[in-house]
């Protein structure tokens, strides 16, 4: 249109037109850069390409990553985007050999990365066509291809340029298949064999012998012994080694290791219960560059084990989740580790005030600390922590039940750099929150099951922590609309909010939250007063809404579904259980193209035929949770058809439970706890 | 010379239609052409100097047998397709006499050359005959065909022997060797002729005992003529078994032990102990002594039954070690890094495994071949259990061995068993995607080739031999092998993979006529 204008009118007018459309003056590269900023909402790029033909072609040639919602439109999509380098098929659960060969013939050498981790319906022949035609493939994710056998993965050997390969949970492949890959893909830098239960020492050893460029190796839960370790440790560039749950590794065999891996930066030997400090110290000898060590769910953290960390001068991160910890062990960590930045002691029984306060007094550089469920520490520890580690950016202290409300004032006063704070199930009160409000960089705040604070405290947070992205108020009984209002007004960056079981909340709060345009996740289970009106406001205001949980919100009905269907085109996951939504509302939702996960456990107002129509028309469904009665009342052929499309059904038979009020719920919770 | 003998052995085993006992003289024709196109790709003509060189060596080795006890000077021309067996014998003698009798002078050489020409014509005729007979034989009854086959074989043999020995006498430099030990040659020669005459029924007791009596010490006199090109194939190398290497670390100082070297005939003889009365052969001395009791009471005395060397054991015996008669072999006493073999059994196994054709084929897999029957039996115990397969075609009974192999060799990759990959349609079309798959097909072709040659008719074998003389390019030479892709190179490394290509018409000398029976075969 513009060009036509310029042809028909004079020189003067042409200039004016160009000034009206500054894009005419911009080089294509600059428009590409502008386009790169349209990341947030996928629909923005769509709007961009609808502006004019030139924008359309710019967007066409610039888009390099595709995440198609439907497989059947894939040929069209691929012909529209000829420069698609990365193809993420995680939303297409039914990728077959035919689709793979269509992809390979239309993408050809352009394709560099493909993610097939959600599909298991393809076989080796499709893969072999793909690796033959897409010669430049660098990254393949074949996780969860549980039907793939050795012959199927062996074809990957032809992908000579492959650098990153994920084979998680490919349970049927053995050493033979992995051996073929090792021989063929010599450039591999990352290989994940997590849960490949058929792969043992021989396959892993061959990978280590043949693929010398490996940087990251994930061998979690493999039945390997330490026989393959010498070859692995010889890998020149190995930086990241994950040996989680390798039960075959034990002290005796580790003691025989002669040299460590000098390049190793990250080591995860969590859940290796047969490795104690003896094996660990021989394993760690020579790995001076180690920066991160994970020993979660392993043998007890005692003084000798902690002393064996002394050699690791570069160690910055230590994760001991779930290990039983002794006081002397904690003290030894404090003494032997140079300067830890990150420490995780979550669910470690045995963390006491004495050991912990000694530890934090020595480790003044700590930035991240996780003391979730360390139920024996008190204000004493928090006092030492806050006075010594002033630079803390992340503190997770869920269920530290002996910590009193005064301690949270200290946290707010001393650790003002906090960005992440998890106070779930704690005694924090309004005073504490007021103090925490000084942490202006706070982005994640979890206040679930904290019954002692009210709107007043929350308003303080809202007033000062404008960077808040995630707020969890699960079962925080003292909250009402005004608290949420305060948050919604100032925290416009909010992406996730959980107000489940906050009885005091009404539509007003939701209407306020609809002013937060980045909101993607809204959980408000069991809030009896919210209605379709509030939901409609959210739908209109929060265009990026992806996950919505309104379970047990009985006031929500079909009227709320229609605006949702109209405005929330990014909605992926919805829980409508025990609402008043009927066939009509459900059918209207089917216009949301990316919806792939639906949970509807009630059956009032739903008919088998309505449900069947909804399920049929909702093409992208991957997971549907339904009441068990529909298993028999829905036509069997329909279920077969839907399953063939890649949809998985979960059948539940749970009677509706009336909600307890938060206080009695917490009392009940404490009864359950030991 | 020594290595030539080895190759003779191979040819011997390769061609059952020749009698192995007489093979020493017969096997020559195949050899020169074989070595020739191994080393160079020239057309193998008899006048080729390199060939002459071989011929000379053959001649010398043959000169041992050249003393003919009974010569009746029959015309050499009488040799045609239907000649009697006796004539063959005489012809050999005749030729040998020519080879031995005269000192070198150009005129004699001219004579020899014209004689060679004549013989080559005869040979051509004979081969033509064989070709023309090919069809007939197929129609005839097996027995008749066999007999005719044997006749032709004998003729062919004799002519070739003459050719070689005459060719050998052309070079003057070997004259001094011609005066070599004749005593044992008598025995040998008689042995050959005897067998040629008596349609192979029994063994002449005296001959055998004579040749047996030659013993290890006599054998030492046979010296290699020096610069023998090691024509024996690298394929043999991996086949060296632990028994050979058992004494690797022994490190006896040279001279501290006595080196014995058995002749290859002795090594390959099924029996080492023979009854001096009836000629019956035994593998063990004890069995012979038990047998001797039947020949009279004098053999029943305790002295006769006692171990013969028991008395000697008192005197300080020099340590005995054995040398392999094959020149160029590490186990040969002339090798720079000579490593002696400990016992006669070691010698036998070593020689058979390393320098002989592998004539025992596993009946289950039809692939694995062995030269020692015990090895075959060991293999048969676990044959079929070798389920770990490499892309090069090598199978392993243990997975870790396969992975060790793959870790060692570039380009080798585990081959997924067919049953499993069958489900993956279109996999085989993608040749480059799975070298393993593709190679397995190669392998199966290879196998079928083998079986064909096993079952092939004798005529076919003769044709093969002719091919090897006339046209070396009709066979895969090792040079061709080198230009193959890496996978088939792997097959080349593997002793079982490509070996059958190299030996034309390899062996229908299976288990059924292995061992003793080869003597009474004809």
From TrEMBL, chain A:
Domain F-box/LRR-repeat protein 15-like leucin rich repeat: 129-278, 335-488, 489-561
GO cellular component: SCF ubiquitin ligase complex
Superkingdom of this protein's organism: Eukaryota
Pfam family, one: LRR_6
SUPFAM superfamilies membership: F-box domain (SSF81383), RNI-like (SSF52047)
Cross-referenced PANTHER family: F-BOX DOMAIN-CONTAINING PROTEIN, PARTNER OF PAIRED, ISOFORM B-RELATED
InterPro entries: F-box-like_dom_sf (IPR036047), FBXL15_LRR (IPR057207), Leu-rich_rpt (IPR001611), Leu-rich_rpt_Cys-con_subtyp (IPR006553), LRR_dom_sf (IPR032675)
An individual GO BP term: SCF-dependent proteasomal ubiquitin-dependent protein catabolic process
Record-linked Gene3D superfamilies: Ribonuclease Inhibitor
Signal peptide location: none
This protein's name: F-box/LRR-repeat protein 15-like leucin rich repeat domain-containing protein
UniProtKB/TrEMBL annotation, chain B:
One example GO MF annotation: zinc ion binding
GO BP terms: response to acidic pH; response to aluminum ion
Superkingdom of source: Eukaryota
Compartment(s) where it occurs, according to its Swiss-Prot or TrEMBL record: Nucleus
Membrane-crossing residue ranges in chain numbering: none
UniProt keyword list: Metal-binding, Nucleus, Repeat, Transcription, Transcription regulation, Zinc, Zinc-finger
Location of the C2H2-type domain: 273-300
Pfam name, any one: zf-C2H2_STOP2_3rd
Compositional bias annotation for Acidic residues: 239-250
Stretch list, region Disordered: 212-255
Cross-referenced PANTHER family: PROTEIN SENSITIVE TO PROTON RHIZOTOXICITY 1
Protein name as catalogued: C2H2-type domain-containing protein
């Amino acid at each position: 249109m513009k060009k036509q204008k310029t042809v028909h009118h004079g020189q003067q007018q042409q200039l004016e037109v160009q000034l009206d459309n500054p894009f005419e003056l911009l080089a294509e590269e600059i428009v590409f850069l502008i386009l790169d900023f349209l990341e947030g909402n996928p629909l923005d790029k769509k709007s961009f390409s609808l502006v004019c033909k030139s924008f359309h072609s710019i967007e066409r040639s610039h888009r390099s990553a595709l995440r198609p919602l439907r497989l059947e439109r894939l040929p069209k999509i691929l012909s529209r985007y000829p420069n698609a380098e990365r193809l993420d098929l995680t939303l297409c659960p039914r990728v077959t050999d035919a689709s793979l060969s269509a992809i390979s013939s239309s993408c050809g050498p352009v394709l560099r990365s493909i993610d097939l981790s959600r599909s298991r319906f393809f076989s080796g022949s499709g893969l072999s066509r793909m690796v033959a035609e897409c010669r430049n493939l660098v990254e393949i994710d074949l996780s969860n291809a549980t039907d793939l056998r050795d012959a199927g993965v062996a074809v990957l050997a032809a992908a000579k340029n492959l650098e990153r390969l994920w084979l998680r949970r490919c349970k049927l492949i053995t050493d033979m298949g992995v051996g073929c890959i090792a021989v063929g893909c010599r450039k591999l830098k990352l290989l994940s064999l997590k849960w490949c239960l058929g792969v043992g020492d021989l396959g892993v050893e061959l990978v280590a012998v043949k693929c010398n460029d490996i940087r990251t190796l994930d061998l979690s839960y493999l039945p390997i012994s330490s026989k393959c370790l010498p070859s692995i440790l010889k890998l020149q560039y190995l930086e990241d080694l994950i040996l989680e749950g390798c039960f075959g590794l034990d002290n005796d065999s580790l003691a025989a290791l002669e040299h460590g891996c000098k390049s190793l930066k990250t080591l995860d030997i969590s859940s290796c219960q047969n490795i104690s400090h003896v094996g660990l110290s021989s394993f760690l000898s020579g790995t001076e560059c180690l920066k991160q060590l994970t020993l979660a769910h392993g043998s007890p953290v005692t003084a000798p084990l902690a002393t064996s960390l002394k050699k690791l001068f570069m160690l910055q991160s230590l994760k001991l989740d779930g290990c039983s910890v002794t006081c002397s062990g904690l003290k030894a960590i404090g003494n032997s580790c140079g300067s830890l930045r990150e420490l995780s002691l979550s669910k470690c029984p045995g963390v006491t005030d004495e050991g912990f306060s000694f530890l934090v007094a020595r480790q003044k550089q700590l930035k991240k600390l996780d003391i979730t469920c360390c139920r024996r520490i008190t204000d004493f520890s928090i006092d030492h922590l806050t006075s010594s580690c002033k630079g803390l950016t992340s503190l997770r202290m869920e269920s530290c039940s002996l910590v009193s409300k005064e301690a949270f004032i200290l946290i707010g006063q001393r650790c003002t750099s906090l960005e992440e704070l998890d106070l779930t199930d704690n005694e924090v009160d309004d005073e504490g929150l007021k103090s925490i409000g000084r942490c202006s960089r706070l982005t994640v705040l979890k206040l679930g099951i904290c019954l002692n604070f009210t709107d007043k405290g929350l308003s303080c947070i809202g007033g000062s922590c404008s960077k808040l992205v995630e707020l969890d108020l699960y079962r925080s009984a003292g909250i009402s609309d005004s608290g949420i209002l305060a948050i919604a007004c100032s925290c416009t960056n909010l992406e996730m909010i959980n107000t489940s079981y906050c009885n005091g909340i009404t539509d007003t709060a939701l209407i306020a939250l609809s002013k937060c345009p980045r909101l993607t996740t809204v959980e408000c289970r069991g809030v009896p007063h919210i209605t379709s009106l509030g939901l409609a406001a959210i739908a209109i205001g929060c265009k990026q809404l992806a996950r919505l949980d309104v379970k047990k919100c009985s006031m929500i009905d079909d009227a709320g579904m229609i605006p949702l269907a109209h405005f929330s085109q990014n909605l992926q996951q919805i829980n409508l259980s025990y609402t008043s939504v009927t066939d009509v509302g459900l059918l209207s939702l089917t216009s949301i193209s990316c919806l792939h996960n639906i949970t509807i456990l009630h059956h009032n107002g739903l008919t088998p035929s309505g449900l069947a129509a909804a399920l049929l028309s909702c093409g992208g469904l991957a997971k549907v949770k339904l009441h068990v009665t529909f298993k028999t009342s829905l036509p069997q052929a329909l279920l077969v058809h839907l399953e063939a499309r890649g949809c998985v059904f979960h059948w539940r038979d749970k009677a509706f439970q009336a909600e307890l009020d938060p206080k009695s719920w917490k009392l009940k919770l404490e009864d359950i706890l030991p | 010379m020594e290595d030539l003998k080895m190759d003779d052995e191979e040819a011997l085993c390769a061609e059952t239609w020749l009698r192995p006992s007489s093979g020493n003289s017969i096997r020559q024709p195949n050899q020169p052409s074989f070595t020739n196109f191994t080393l160079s790709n020239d057309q193998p003509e008899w006048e080729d100097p390199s060939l002459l060189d071989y011929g000379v060596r053959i001649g010398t080795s043959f000169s041992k047998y050249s003393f003919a006890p009974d010569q009746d000077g029959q015309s050499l021309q009488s040799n045609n397709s239907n000649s009697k067996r006796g004539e063959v014998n005489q012809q050999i003698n005749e030729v040998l006499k020519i080879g031995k009798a005269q000192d070198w002078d150009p005129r004699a050489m001219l004579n020899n050359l014209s004689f060679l020409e004549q013989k080559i014509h005869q040979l051509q005729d004979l081969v033509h005959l064989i070709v023309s007979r090919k069809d007939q034989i197929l129609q005839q009854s097996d027995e008749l065909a066999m007999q005719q086959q044997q006749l032709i074989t004998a003729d062919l043999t004799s002519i070739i022997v003459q050719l070689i020995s005459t060719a050998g006498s052309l070079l003057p430099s070997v004259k001094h060797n011609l005066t070599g030990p004749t005593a044992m040659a008598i025995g040998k020669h008689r042995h050959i002729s005897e067998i040629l005459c008596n349609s192979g029924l029994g063994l002449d007791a005296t001959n055998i005992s004579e040749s047996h009596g030659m013993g290890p010490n006599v054998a030492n006199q046979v010296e290699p003529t020096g610069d023998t090109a090691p024509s024996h194939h690298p394929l043999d190398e991996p086949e060296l078994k632990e028994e050979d290497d058992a004494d690797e670390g022994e490190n006896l100082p040279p001279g501290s032990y006595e080196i014995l070297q058995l002749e290859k005939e002795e090594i390959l003889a099924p029996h080492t102990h023979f009854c001096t009365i009836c000629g019956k052969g035994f593998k063990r001395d004890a069995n012979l002594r038990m047998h001797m009791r039947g020949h009279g009471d004098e053999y029943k005395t305790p002295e006769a039954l006692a171990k013969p060397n028991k008395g000697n054991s008192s005197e300080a015996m020099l340590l005995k070690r054995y040398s392999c008669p094959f020149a160029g072999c590490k186990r040969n006493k002339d090798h720079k890094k000579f490593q002696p073999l400990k016992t006669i059994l070691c010698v036998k196994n070593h020689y058979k495994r390393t320098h002989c054709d592998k004539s025992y084929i596993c009946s289950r897999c039809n692939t694995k071949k062995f030269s020692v029957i015990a090895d075959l039996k060991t293999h048969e115990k676990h044959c079929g259990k070798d389920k770990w397969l490499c892309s090069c075609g090598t199978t392993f009974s243990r997975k870790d061995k396969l992975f060790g192999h793959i870790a060692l060799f570039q380009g080798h990759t585990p081959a997924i068993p067919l049953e499993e990959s069958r489900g993956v349609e279109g996999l085989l079309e993608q040749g480059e995607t799975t070298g393993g798959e593709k190679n397995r097909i190669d392998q199966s072709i290879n196998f079928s080739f083998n079986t064909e040659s096993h079952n092939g008719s004798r005529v076919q074998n003769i044709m093969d031999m002719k091919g090897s003389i006339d046209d070396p390019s009709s066979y895969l030479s090792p040079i061709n092998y080198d230009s193959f892709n890496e996978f088939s190179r792997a097959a080349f490394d593997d002793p079982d993979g490509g070996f059958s290509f190299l030996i034309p018409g390899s062996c229908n000398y299976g288990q059924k006529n292995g061992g003793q029976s080869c003597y009474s075969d004809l």
